[in-house]
Amino acid sequence: MKPTIEDVAALAGVSRGTVSRxxxxxxxxxASAERVHAAIAETGYRAxxxxxxxxxxxxxxxxxxxxxxxxxxxxxxxFGLLLRGISSQLTGAVHTSPDVSLSLVLITxxxxxxxxxxxxxxxxxxxxxxxxPHVHDPILGSIDxxxxxxxxxxxxxxxxLTWSVTIDDAHGGAAGARxxxxxxxxxxxxxxxxxxxxxxxxxxxxxxxELGDLLDPALLVHANYAxxxxxxxxxxxxxxxxxxxxxxxxxxxQAVGALQVLLESGRSVxxxxxxxxxxxxxxxxxxSPPLTTINQPxxxxxxxxxxxxxxxxxxxxVSDQTxxxxxxxxxxx
Amino acid sequence: MKPTIEDVAALAGVSRGTVSRxxxxxxxxxASAERVHAAIAETGYRAxxxxxxxxxxxxxxxxxxxxxxxxxxxxxxxFGLLLRGISSQLTGAVHTSPDVSLSLVLITxxxxxxxxxxxxxxxxxxxxxxxxPHVHDPILGSIDxxxxxxxxxxxxxxxxLTWSVTIDDAHGGAAGARxxxxxxxxxxxxxxxxxxxxxxxxxxxxxxxELGDLLDPALLVHANYAxxxxxxxxxxxxxxxxxxxxxxxxxxxQAVGALQVLLESGRSVxxxxxxxxxxxxxxxxxxSPPLTTINQPxxxxxxxxxxxxxxxxxxxxVSDQTxxxxxxxxxxx
DNA sequence: TTGAAAGCGCTAACAA
DNA sequence: TTGTTAGCGCTTTCAA
Lengths: 333, 333
Prior knowledge:
The structure is a homodimer.
Chain A: H1 5-12, H2 16-24, H3 30-43, H4 49-56, E1 61-67, H5 77-87, E2 101-107, H6 110-119, E3 127-130, H7 138-142, E4 149-152, E5 162-167, H8 169-182, E6 188-192, H9 198-211, E7 220-222, H10 227-240, E8 246-249, H11 252-264, E9 274-276, E10 293-295, H12 298-313, E11 321-323, E12 326-328
Parallel strand pairs in A: 1-2, 1-3, 3-4, 4-5, 5-11, 6-7, 6-8, 8-9
Antiparallel strand pairs in A: 10-12
The structure holds a DNA duplex.
C-alpha cells in the first residue's frame, strides 16, 4: 500500500497531527519540519486527495464549464486557449497549496446539463470557471449559490460570488482606428461583428468615435464573424463606395474574406485599401499580405480567471478584470 | 448543511447501511428501496463524492491527458471531438453507477508534466485516456502501472492494462482508391501524409494495393497535412505528369491545397481531375466543389475509449478496438 | 509547539 | 435482508 500520513509520522517520530501541520502550514518547530520532510521524501508520501477533501472541506478541483451546442464546440480555438491559460495556473506550491485539478464539464445537450448540475456540487468542486461567454446562459442561475464563479467574458445578470474577466474591446477598436488615422486614410469603412455580440458593438462604437466625421455612416455594415461574412460585407461596401481606402474588421476571418474580395476586384492591399483585423488568430500572420490586427490575450484571460478563483479561495478580495488588447502591425495596414 | 446518508436513513427508517446498499446496488427489499428513494427525493440527498471515494476506493474520475507542445494544442479540432465523445459517456445510471467526472490534464511543458505525475495518482483517478497519439510519448511509461489506460490512437510500446482505440486507416485508404477505380480514372496520383505518421503510411499502402499497376510509382508524393503541403505536392505532381486525372489526399486540408492548384492551372474538378480527401472535417462540405472524402469517426473514438475504461473498471474483459471509416461522396470525385 | 482524539460521510465486512 | 461496526486517510479542535 501507499504510505499514509501515519507512516510518515512514525518515521519522523512525531504525531500525525504534526505531519498534517507541516503539510498545511501550521505552527511547527524547525526541527520537526525537517524530519517530516525527510520522512516524506523517504517514503514517497503523497496525500490522499479524497481523504484530504473529506476532512478539510476543500476539493482541490476547479470546474471548467463549456456550454455550447454540439458542433460549435472547439471549432473555435478560443476554448483551447482559455483552457491552456487556466491549466498554467494550477500547479501548487511545494508544501503550501496542493495542485488543483481541472474538471472539464461539457454541456451540449439536456443530459449533460443535468449531469453538470450534479457535478457542480460545492463538495466536489471549489469553484467554477465559465468559458462560454453566452448571454442569458441558464447555467449560471442553476449553479449552487455558495460556489464561486469566474466568467471568461461578460456577465449580464449579476450573481454573488461571481466575477468576470474580459477583454478591453473599446480600447482595441480605438487602436485600430487610430492606426488608420495615422496612416492618413481618407475613406474608411467598418465591417462590424454580429449585432448580437456585445463586444463587437463596443468595438464598433469606439471605432466610430475615433474616426469621427471621416466615417461615412453608410460605410458601416455588420456581418457574422466568418470569412463569408467578410466577403459579403466587403462586396456591399464596394457597391456603396468604390473609393474606400481602409476597412476595420470585426475578426481576422472577416478580414481574410474582405481581403479576398479586394484582391479579386484588382485592388492591392494595403496600397489601395488598408485592412485591419481583430483577434490576432494564428493564421493572421500567414495571409498575404500578413494581417495587421488587434491581439486579444485569450490565454491570459484563462490564467487570470484561474488566479482570481484561487485568490478568492485564499480569502483575498477579488474583482472583475479587463485585459488590454494590443495593436499588431503587419503588412495589411 | 447538506443532508447526509444518515439523514436519509433516519427519514426512511432504515440504517445507514441499507441506504448505502440501495445506492450501490446491494441486496435490499423492495419496500426498503422504495422508502429510501422517497427519502432521497425528499431530502435532495446527493452522495458526498470524496467520502465515497475514500471509503470505496474508487474516485469516479477519468483523466483525459493531452500532451502536446504549446501551440499545436487545440489547433487541431481532433481533441475537441475526442473530448466530446468521452464526455458523452460519463453520465451515470440513476442509482447504479454514479456520474464520472473528467479531469483534463494538459501537458505542454516540464512543469505540467511533473504536475501530471502527481495528478495521475491511482487514488485520485480511476483511469486515464490518452488523447495524444504520439509515438514514443514518455508519459505512458511514467503512469502508475496499476492505472488502466486507453489510448486514442496507436500504441507502440505495450503496457499492461492498456488498450487502444484506432481508426481503420487501411480500409479508409482502400475505399477512396476503389471509388476512383469505379469512376474509371486512368492516371491517379497520391498525396500521402507525412512519412512519420503511421496511419498515413497505412492508408497509402492500401491505396497502392488497390490501385495496382494503374498507379505510376512516380505519382506518389508525401507532404505535411496542411493545405500548404497539398499545394506543394500538387505542383510537383503536375510537373511529373500533367495528365493526372485523380488525386487521393492524406487530409482534407491537403485536398483544398491541391484543389486550389488545380483550379489555378485551369483544370476543372472533378471533370478534369477528381480529388478525394481524408478526415471529413467540417469545412470539407463547403469547399467548391464540396469534397468527396473519407470520414473518420473521431467523436466515436472518444466514446469508445470512455466505454472501454468503464467496462474494464466494471471487471469486464476488454480489448483493442478499430473503428471503421466511411466514404463520403460529394462532388470532387 | 505538540499529541490525543474526535470527526468528515461513506462502504463493506460481519453477525444476526 | 438487515443493523452494527470498523475503518478509509486526513484536518482540526482541545489540552497539555
